[in-house]
Amino acid sequence: MMFFRKHINVVVVEADVLTRFTLTKMISSIPNVAVCADFDNAEDCLFYMRHNKVDLILMDVSLPYMGGIEASILIRKFYPAVKLALVMVHDSDKQVVNSLFAEADGYFIRDFSFEFLKCAIDGILSGKKFIDKRIQNAIFNCVASLNDADKSRFKKFVSLKKQVLIESLLSKRCSNECFELSECKFSEYLHYVFHKLKSFSCFDLLKQEINYEL
Predict the structure, then answer these.
(1) What are 119-147's pLDDT values in tens digits?
(2) What are residue 8's phi and psi, to 5 degrees?
(3) Neighbours of 55 (CB within 10 A)
(4) Cys-Cys crosslink for 61: which of 48, 68, 80, 117, Cβ 3.0 to 4.6 Å?
């Protein structure tokens, strides 16, 4: 069954000139998707959004002045219909955890292929959350850091199938391929786990520990 997507306006916000150019070229190769603007800072992006229609933003986390996480919180508050994907340079626990708290629709590590980007954008535009599987360790490290009582409580929040996935990933025995899960379905699982994890008050302390590197 074929469907035709309406024209999608994308804004790229990336401090590095070469990366911004590469992203723009890759996105422009996706059917019915066009980069309507690109910026090297979040402030210009926010000003642009006041007067122009934007469907999706790809934003670097490590921007000068206003960071990508701070900007994403403002975008989510004032432009809730706009889809947002955050791009990270590496998969450090600190950067991943902070980024996930920004409530974006997608989370990527910078060095990705065209096929990955197309799959991610298709998923995000269809209303799904997309999390790069390369940041899975940061998420499951957070689960592993819970004390035994909280781990027991956490498992009660998730379905049996997801419990098996969580245990396997915590022990680093399996990946999404072992469970015959697609990249999109696996990223849905990661987002589900983090969403459940955020409901624990102890996780606020964990976030502070990561931020202050305690």
Answers:
(1) 889 889 988 888 787 776 666 666 666 66
(2) -110, 130
(3) 18
(4) 68
